[in-house]
């Protein structure tokens, strides 16, 4: 196997960073039992382990670059920015978005690790509910989750009401049928009584 060669079942972080999947070989690094890592993380760890044992500096440098790319991408997943001033204050997913809105102006902003942190700060310093939230982040906000839960609760309540109405209708039908049965039994008893009257 050559570094950079596209290998089936390999991790490809960039055009130049491709790594082999050693998971089904004896070359794989044994991770502690109590740890759970993703397939991508496993491939990066295995390749670092192989590079170390082969004493291959180029492979080791490629692994370190791969880890850098992976960590950079992973950190970007949850990162967001709060713009406190400017033409459109709010929460933005990327630095590029903040730059596009603040170009040519002095703006106050801050980077946050999670949407929850960003929203707490935005709620404190901006008018709650009246600031921009990047569409990609909107579905991750606690309010979005609460709204979705509220919708599901309302739908469930409607279904429950419909079921209760159906149960009431069925109970009414049962009562009418019981009344009809009682009436028929009374008529039947009356007919029997008339048939067996002594002369």
UniProtKB/TrEMBL annotation:
> According to the lineage, what is the superkingdom?
Eukaryota
Q: Which InterPro entries match?
A: Ribosomal_bL9/RNase_H1_N (IPR009027), RNase_H1_N (IPR011320), RNase_H1_N_sf (IPR037056)
Q: Name one Pfam family in it.
A: Cauli_VI
Protein name, per record: Ribonuclease H1 N-terminal domain-containing protein
Gene3D superfamilies membership = Ribonuclease H1, N-terminal domain
According to the UniProt entry, the coiled-coil residues are 146-194
Ribonuclease H1 N-terminal domain location is: 81-120
- Record's keyword terms, sorted: Coiled coil
